[in-house]
Design goal:
Distance between the termini: 11 Å
Largest sheet: 8 strands, antiparallel
Oligomer: single chain
Shape: globular
Bound molecules: flavin-adenine dinucleotide
Length: about 525
């Protein structure tokens, strides 16, 4: 099976000449309704990570799924062209790039956000290149409805997050975004357009979800909706000890629905007055003050914070909301006097990271490199992870949020291509590095090296973990990542993209000339 996907590279100069020929004949032959740009491909050669720059042959702006079929068919007829769907290019390690291949700008595909409401809920049919931010606005403002499961930041595309998982503070209840899709339309690596769901073409449906773009391009997804609340009570609760933090976080994510918050996340911060990594990063408004005198003297190098949110209607009486919150906080062991809350509109809450983006753009750090590391670590090993990674390797912080919060395995569908650790509870760990000094190469290298140190530390200690938004340079790495799911992943590739045309930037398979 792997043999038919094996690498068959041409020598560089020969490959370039042939590829140039390919692309010029392509431009003529494609007859796209959209457009093809062989000259200024700038944005297609970069991503949010800023660690890789890879030049494609052409940047294609399709107008619809028919254009995608034309592009994939033409690539299949060529000797070595690959095709990368580019969402909003928010990958870290070049996953949406195509070295001397064709990059498709999914953002320019005709945007479709059609809400079908039935009995106060329903679904939205949305194009793969639509931003979640636009889905939010259309569903809430037009229909008072909203998807159930989000990402923290909404400047990401529907197809991009569904190719990974899509994780945020609602995932403990509804699962990741991949658990909240009932139907998709996709263009496979064989240039077939298929509508798929749990019952119609289920093999491609489950393959595509979390499939790292390997099996098809998502042109449309049907996402479940629920009634949107008006308001959110957004809270942060500080802990000195990891044990108390993780115990309470796990209690909060395992409570029955009527008895629990609607959003549960958590983060680690440095036990110091450092404005970016320390106490000042915790309060929710500029008026709130972190009283460090409340932190016990026994506290270590880092502290912990549970972040929760409760949905409510603007017509609810304030005392009703207060009572509901008090009931949910009962018995939790956070430090008294170190709890913060603010009431905000639902859309404002979901768009909270947009404000971070605006500030970061104003400070010039949005476009700097971001060597982020995202992992899923089993509950079994998370206390050791805290001891070895948060308290030691990362005791000075990462210049941005260090997220850590529990998720429940039963909310993830085993049939999808996403891989997660063993055990019912595992933690998302996200090291979201922001630092102006990253513009210096040596600093970026240090950060990348620190990420490697963390991965090595997990491997050396035998932690049960998976990379989220994974990135490996070798087949060995990918085999280890997928574990006993590797064979299924390879079989899916052979079935839906036998020439390995799609998503070459993931560096899992190499383009072959024959199916
Ligand atoms: P791209 O980076 O453009 O593409 C990612 C991969 O998907 C590529 O392999 C690409 O070829 C493929 N792809 C893109 N579109 C399609 C499509 N239509 N069909 C098939 N394959 C496709 N993730 C979370 O889960 N939760 C978060 O809270 C979260 N927050 C983030 C905040 C920021 C500021 C950033 C930069 C990233 C965040 N992410 C988060 C990570 C995000 O989910 C990934 O970056 C993801 O790749 C989505 O980005 P994108 O839409 O720009 O996709």
């Amino acid at each position: 099976m792997i043999a038919c996907l094996e690498q068959r590279f041409l020598p560089d100069s020969e490959a370039e000449t042939r590829a140039d020929d390919d692309v010029s004949s392509l431009c003529k032959a494609l007859e796209l309704n959209g457009s093809i740009d062989c000259g200024s491909v700038g944005v297609a050669s970069k991503d949010f990570g800023g660690l890789y720059a890879v030049k494609p042959l052409a940047f294609i702006r399709p107008s619809g799924a028919d254009d995608l079929v034309r592009v994939v068919s033409a690539a299949a007829r060529s000797s070595n062209l690959t095709v990368a769907a580019r969402g909003n290019g928010h990958s870290i390690n070049g996953q949406a790039m195509a070295d001397r291949g064709l990059v498709i700008d999914m953002r320019t595909m005709e945007e479709r956000i059609e809400v079908v409401s039935c009995g106060g809920a329903g679904y939205v049919d949305v194009s793969g290149g639509a931003l979640w931010e636009d889905v939010l606005k259309r569903c809430v403002l037009g229909f008072g409805l909203a998807p159930r499961s989000w990402t923290d930041y909404l400047g990401l595309t529907v197809g991009g997050t569904l190719s990974n998982a899509g994780i945020s503070g609602q995932a403990f209840r509804y699962g990741p975004q991949t658990s909240n899709v009932t139907e998709m339309e996709v263009v496979t690596g064989k240039a077939e357009t298929l509508v798929c769901s749990e019952t119609q073409n289920p093999e491609i449906f489950f393959a595509i979800l979390g499939g790292l773009g390997q099996f098809g391009i998502i042109t449309r997804a049907r996402v479940l909706l629920q009634p949107a609340p008006d308001m959110v009570r957004w809270m942060r609760l500080v802990y000195a000890e990891f044990d108390a933090f993780s115990r309470d976080a796990e209690i909060l994510v395992t409570r029955p629905e009527g008895d629990s918050f609607d959003y549960v996340e958590g983060f680690v911060f440095v036990n110091s007055s450092d404005p970016v990594n320390g106490w000042p990063s915790v309060p929710l408004t500029p008026e709130q003050r972190f009283n460090s005198g409340r932190v016990p003297r026994t506290a270590g190098s880092v502290l912990y914070c549970i972040e929760v949110a409760l949905h409510y209607k603007s017509s609810d009486h304030a005392s009703t909301v207060d009572m509901a919150v008090s009931r949910m906080l009962e018995g939790l062991g956070f430090i008294e006097g170190l709890e913060f809350h603010v009431d905000v509109g639902y859309m404002e809450f979901l768009l909270r990271v947009k404000r971070v983006e605006e500030d970061a753009r104003a400070n010039g750090i949005w476009d700097a490199p971001h060597p982020w590391l995202n992992m899923l670590v089993s509950k079994r090993d998370i206390a050791d992870f805290d001891r070895t990674v948060f308290k030691k390797i990362l005791r000075d912080g990462v210049g941005g949020p260090m997220l850590v919060y529990p998720l429940l395995r039963r909310k993830w569908d085993d049939r999808t291509s996403v891989v997660i650790p063993e055990g019912e509870i595992f933690y998302l760990v996200a090291l979201l590095r922001f630092d102006p000094a990253y513009s210096k190469d040596s600093v970026v290298e240090k950060m990348v090296a620190q990420n490697q140190e963390i991965i090595q530390c997990c491997m050396k200690n035998g932690f049960d973990f998976k990379l989220y938004l994974p990135h490996y340079q070798s087949e060995e790495g990918w085999k280890r990542h997928f574990g006993n799911r590797w064979t299924r992943f390879v079989e899916r590739k052979a079935r839906f993209d036998p020439m390995a045309i799609l998503a070459p930037g993931q560096k899992i398979f190499s383009r072959s000339r024959q199916p």
